[in-house]
Structures are given as C-alpha cells and as structure tokens.
C-alpha cells in the first residue's frame, strides 16, 4: 500500500489560488458556483462505468501554467488526474475520489511541422483528428489511428501508448515518439522535446511517459515522427466460413501483399452483426455472407495504385479459385466512400457495443490461435453460471474482435447493466486464461483503475517492485493519478 | 447478346468518372480548372442508377435474366475502371466512348447526343426501353443531360426519382419524384428516361466474385467519330476560384460582449 497516502481535498483557498494562475473561464469548480452537472463529463468515463467526485477542473493553456498548478498541488498534497479526451477504456482518466482534474483541452496548438522530416511537434491537448487534418495538407499521416480519433488527444494517446489500427504498419509509439515535454509531480518542467531520430545519450526518460497513464507527470507536448501519406490505399472485407481459416489467411495475405499490407483486422460474426445493427457503415449483402463465422478487413497502402491493385487482385483471385477456399466471399472498396464505410464497420464496433449495453472490456494479447477459444470459453463460463440470456442483469452477447496482426484480441462482454455477479464470473477467469497462454492482460488500453489488482497476471514481482520504485522516485507524495496502474 | 424475343426490358445506364466526393478539391495555379491528379470514382448519382437497374432486374427476373443492363461511359481511357465497377455491381455489358486524355470535358448536350447515338446503334440489335442516369454529376453540377436526352429522343422523362415501380404489361413506370416541399408521382410510358435522386437507394458493395466476373464481361469501344457526334464544348471556362476561406469563430467571455459583437457585425433584433 505504498501510495495510499493521505491526500487533501481542494478548498476554496486553493481555487482562489488557481484563478490567479489561470483566467477565470479556465477554472471550473463547484466551490465557486459551477453546477456539479457541468463537471459530469469530467467525472464520468466514456463507458459510464467509473465515476469520480472531483469539485474542480482546471484547463491550463500553457506549460508554465501546468507547472504552477502542479507545484501548488504537490505542496498541498492534492491529488491530480491528468485528462485528455476522456476516451480511455480502463477508468484511468477520471478521479477515484475528489482529485483535481487537469484537462489538457485548451493546450491545442501545433507547435511545428517539418514536411521534409515529417516531424510534428504539438501540444498534448491536440485532438488526433485535428492533427491528422493538419498534416494531411502536407501529405503526411499520423502513425496511429483509432476509433476515438475525433475526441482523443495526442497526450492521451502517448500516455496510454495507444496501439490502434496502424500499428501493424507503423509500429508502436515507443518508436515514433521522438520527444516529450512533461511537468513532473513537483512542478519541474522536463524538456525532452527532441526532434532527433537518433539520440543515444544515456537513459531515454521519455519512454517512461509512454504508457505511464498520467502516473509520473503531465505530458504537455509531444514530438512525433509521421510517415508520408500513402499514394494509394485499398481495402477489402473477407467473409470466412470458420475461425480456423483466419491464421492460414493471415499467412497467405502477408506472403502475397508483403510491404503494402497495412492492416489485418478481425471481427467475429456477433461483433459484425452488432456494428450493422447500430448503423456503423454499410453492411454486406445478407445472402452473400450467410454462414460466415467471422470477417477480416485487409487494408493496403502503397506508393503506386496500379501496382497495389494488381497484387491485391492476384491475391483475391488465388483465394477465390483455391480448391479449398479460405474465404466464402468478400467485398472490395470501389471508392473512398466505400473505403470509409468498410472501415466504419470495424471501427464502429466499440461504439456499437456501448449502444447495445454495458460492456466489460478485456483487451488482451494472446496467441492468434486462441482468439476463438477465449471468446467461446468466456461465453461458456457465463452460461455455466446462468448469466447468459435475455433479461435484466444478464449478459446479452460475448464478442471478439481486434488486431490480428498484433496478436491483440478485444473480448467484450455486453450486459444490460454492470453487476457484481458478472464481474465475479469474468475475473479472474479471463486473466487466468490469458496468463495460462503467457499473454498480456492489457495489450493496448492500459491498466488504469480497472486492472491494478490484476497486474500480477502479466508482470512478475520483480517488475512490479521496480515499477513502484520508479513511481516513488518521480512522485514521492503520490499525487499523480492516485490509484491508477499501481495499487 | 440475348435473343430479342425473350427479353422483357433493356436498360441503359450512362455513368461518369468524376473526382471522388471525399477528395479535397484544389484549384490549379492558372485558375483554369482543378487538380485532376486525385482519386476518381463513379459519380454517386450514377452509382445509384446502376443499383436501381440491378434491383429492377432482381425484382423482375427469376433466373431467366430477361432484363439486360448496359453501362455506358464517355471519357478518357481510365474511365474503363468506372465501367468495371458498374459491371461488378451487375451490369451485363458496357460501351466505352473513348476520348483523348487531353480532350476538354464534354458538355451535357454533347453527352446527350452521344448517348442518343449509342441507343440508335443498339436499336440495330435490340432497342433500349429505359435510360437511368444520375440527376447531375458532382464535378460540373450541370444537371441537364437526362432532360436533354429525353428531348432529343422524344421520350418521356421522370427526373429526380426517389422510387421507381414498373408495370411491364402496361409498359410504363410509376415514379416518385422529389420536388420542392414534397413528393410527386408521375406515370411515364416506355421508352423513357429516369434521373436518380439520392434517396432512391443505397448502392451495394461490389463483391469479389462479381469483380472477377466483371473482368470477363464484354466492353465495346467506340469513338465520337464512330457515332457521328461532336463533343467540342460550346462553353468557355473563364476562371475557377476557391471559395473564400472560412474565418474561425471566437469565444466571448460574457453575454454583453456577445451582444456588442453582434451589433458591430450588423445584426439587430427583429
Ligand atoms: C471508440 C474507441 C476506440 C478506441 N480504440 C482504441 C484502439 O484501437 N487502440 C487503443 O490503444 N486504444 C483505443 N481506445 C482507448 C484509448 O486508450 C484512448 O482512446 C486514447 O488513447 C486515450 O486518449 P484520451 O486523450 O482520450 O485520454 P484519456 O482517456 O483522457 O486518458 C487516458 C489516460 O491517460 C492519461 N492522460 C491523458 N492525457 C494525459 C497527459 N497529457 N499527460 C499525462 N497523462 C495523460 C489519463 O490520466 C488516463 O490515465 C479506444 C477508445 C474508444 C472510446
């Protein structure tokens, strides 16, 4: 219980002090007449699962302001929750109690972009979509893309080490982030905003902030390497008769498409049907996909359209004409509109799930061959406890989808509401399943509040001990995002 | 081709290759046009036209394929891709009236004359009963081709269709049209011209087996000379400019400030 230190609540005097640092509209506090409803969006997480009771939200505009706020909070032992777009899926972005929320939303300027190197330097509060649009005019793309791009911020992406839909092609943020500016828990500004691709000068501190989930400090700016926009992109959705075909298909697709393959995404039939039900992208024709057990979305990105199309078409005709075909059918985008519509089917699953009910989300890394077994075993587990079916407090659906190319399965259990019984049926069941296949209990969403107790399934005691030492070194008073990542 | 005795209906669907609607349009530095070196796809209204033709066939034919669908495009060599898309969606054959890459974009009257000439050529084999085409192309927004074609042919027309019902025995179509402030139903005898509105249907994806099949479907190549028509424009584009840049909004700190700003901007209470 290293970090369950006593933390202070924000007082009226604190708020007065904050208004000296920030302009009045940047301070939102119920201690200063703000209706508590106005703080709801900061206190509740995206899934409606976690709820904090913060009285005060601060929206600094500069790194200097962040530094002064943090310094004050550290002296006063006030807990801080750094908040980006609040789209995190593990309860990391909302307070556990009444910590002060520091929202980065007003730090949203692009500091520089170099079209020659593709290096972008931006404030942490820049929304991923805004950055994507900004560099699109210079024919570059962000190295990451995810369903939450319209709300999530680059600072949040870096803090969760978000993976997403392009990881297969452009790698993780540990590679593409070149530098970080952060405010440490005592208010010190750490300027590591390097724009160098190579810099071997001792410990690489910025790596610690990538995936730290706001527990080591507040990221205020990011320098990131962006790749040139591909000249040509294409996508297809393939319908498979059995899950068993996914792996052979992946191997064949990799072999034939090689360098132009940019995404290989999996969704099982239930996930697909949910996306269609909730209007996420146009569906394939019903009669054509009758009996399909799962789907794969393949994306290609390359430098020359004719070349890419030829490769893709050769692949598709081998697939269709094989004596024992791996796919039953599929569709291929004929226009950018269809390209987006097909992506929407896959990207829209997260949103469809939240429209369908309350979701227990497990985001795990396991061997590809275990994806279906994991979903089936979980469904069986719920059935055996009598928790699967229609009616209040029951689980409506268990779905699997995810980034096959990265070995990352999203296992979602959708219930009419959150209940302790369902929770107990799922945990530690899912974590044990994952651990038994030497997987990771959090492939890309992080630990947040949701998985602190389960960290030991993926990290050894030695690792956890050293993580705690690092936390204590940076944040001896335990004010930074208390209760998150480490218990 | 199909024996004419068995046929119920022949549909011709003219389609245009246009700059895709998702592409950000850039005016060229000379201000004579736009940058065309971008992604093109089938004009969305034409996609709806192809879809409608395929749905008509699905409704009418139970295996015997008595409805034939011919896609037609007038455009440079690359327009063949647009025809392949139409073929993959379900057209049986295609006609490509090819013009040089450098040729100016044809205008509605020229296009209508070319379509008419194709129809007359087809008459030698089997006539066309119905032309379904987009109400406009999203690149030039001229929106006249369907109407001009109907006049040149002396056929009836139902424009801006949002619903099409056929009566094969009576040889006519009842078409619901989108008009200002409501809907209008018209009945038109075959042969006829229909132009499509957005709500008519939602076009399907091209399935992989159909994309493969489309590669083997026949495409007849013709030139404007073969058809005896001229596609020389009669209109001269003088200048193309970008719309004025939008000025971003700004936040005000109080109601008073807002009122003040509205006043200076010239807004008054009514
Ligand atoms: C529809 C949808 C799809 C998603 N798809 C994916 C996906 O494909 N892959 C994936 O990896 N994730 C995905 N996510 C979850 C993902 O983690 C978040 O969307 C995103 O990376 C978080 O960014 P954010 O700005 O919303 O951060 P928040 O949710 O606000 O915060 C997340 C965590 O980071 C911390 N934090 C935020 N900003 C800062 C900062 N400036 N400095 C320090 N700490 C900070 C917070 O304290 C919190 O612990 C998805 C979420 C949704 C809702």
UniProtKB/TrEMBL annotation, chain A:
<feature type="domain" description="FAD-binding PCMH-type">
    <location>
        <begin position="50"/>
        <end position="229"/>
    </location>
</feature>
<comment type="similarity">
    <text>Belongs to the FAD-binding oxidoreductase/transferase type 4 family.</text>
</comment>
<dbReference type="GO" id="GO:0004458">
    <property type="term" value="F:D-lactate dehydrogenase (cytochrome) activity"/>
</dbReference>
<dbReference type="GO" id="GO:0005739">
    <property type="term" value="C:mitochondrion"/>
</dbReference>
<dbReference type="InterPro" id="IPR006094">
    <property type="entry name" value="Oxid_FAD_bind_N"/>
</dbReference>
<dbReference type="InterPro" id="IPR016171">
    <property type="entry name" value="Vanillyl_alc_oxidase_C-sub2"/>
</dbReference>
<dbReference type="InterPro" id="IPR016164">
    <property type="entry name" value="FAD-linked_Oxase-like_C"/>
</dbReference>
<dbReference type="InterPro" id="IPR016169">
    <property type="entry name" value="FAD-bd_PCMH_sub2"/>
</dbReference>
<dbReference type="GO" id="GO:0071949">
    <property type="term" value="F:FAD binding"/>
</dbReference>
<keyword id="KW-0560">Oxidoreductase</keyword>
<dbReference type="InterPro" id="IPR016167">
    <property type="entry name" value="FAD-bd_PCMH_sub1"/>
</dbReference>
<dbReference type="InterPro" id="IPR004113">
    <property type="entry name" value="FAD-bd_oxidored_4_C"/>
</dbReference>
<dbReference type="InterPro" id="IPR036318">
    <property type="entry name" value="FAD-bd_PCMH-like_sf"/>
</dbReference>
<keyword id="KW-0285">Flavoprotein</keyword>
<keyword id="KW-0274">FAD</keyword>
<dbReference type="InterPro" id="IPR016166">
    <property type="entry name" value="FAD-bd_PCMH"/>
</dbReference>
<dbReference type="Pfam" id="PF01565">
    <property type="entry name" value="FAD_binding_4"/>
</dbReference>
<protein>
    <submittedName>
        <fullName>FAD-binding domain-containing protein</fullName>
    </submittedName>
</protein>
<dbReference type="Pfam" id="PF02913">
    <property type="entry name" value="FAD-oxidase_C"/>
</dbReference>
<dbReference type="InterPro" id="IPR051264">
    <property type="entry name" value="FAD-oxidored/transferase_4"/>
</dbReference>
UniProtKB/TrEMBL annotation, chain B:
<dbReference type="Pfam" id="PF01012">
    <property type="entry name" value="ETF"/>
</dbReference>
<dbReference type="InterPro" id="IPR014729">
    <property type="entry name" value="Rossmann-like_a/b/a_fold"/>
</dbReference>
<dbReference type="InterPro" id="IPR014730">
    <property type="entry name" value="ETF_a/b_N"/>
</dbReference>
<keyword id="KW-0813">Transport</keyword>
<comment type="function">
    <text>The electron transfer flavoprotein serves as a specific electron acceptor for several dehydrogenases, including five acyl-CoA dehydrogenases, glutaryl-CoA and sarcosine dehydrogenase. It transfers the electrons to the main mitochondrial respiratory chain via ETF-ubiquinone oxidoreductase (ETF dehydrogenase).</text>
</comment>
<dbReference type="InterPro" id="IPR000049">
    <property type="entry name" value="ET-Flavoprotein_bsu_CS"/>
</dbReference>
<feature type="domain" description="Electron transfer flavoprotein alpha/beta-subunit N-terminal">
    <location>
        <begin position="31"/>
        <end position="231"/>
    </location>
</feature>
<dbReference type="GO" id="GO:0005759">
    <property type="term" value="C:mitochondrial matrix"/>
</dbReference>
<keyword id="KW-0496">Mitochondrion</keyword>
<dbReference type="GO" id="GO:0009055">
    <property type="term" value="F:electron transfer activity"/>
</dbReference>
<dbReference type="GO" id="GO:0033539">
    <property type="term" value="P:fatty acid beta-oxidation using acyl-CoA dehydrogenase"/>
</dbReference>
<dbReference type="InterPro" id="IPR033948">
    <property type="entry name" value="ETF_beta_N"/>
</dbReference>
<dbReference type="GO" id="GO:0009063">
    <property type="term" value="P:amino acid catabolic process"/>
</dbReference>
<protein>
    <recommendedName>
        <fullName>Probable electron transfer flavoprotein subunit beta</fullName>
    </recommendedName>
</protein>
<keyword id="KW-0249">Electron transport</keyword>
<dbReference type="InterPro" id="IPR012255">
    <property type="entry name" value="ETF_b"/>
</dbReference>
<comment type="subunit">
    <text>Heterodimer of an alpha and a beta subunit.</text>
</comment>
<comment type="similarity">
    <text>Belongs to the ETF beta-subunit/FixA family.</text>
</comment>
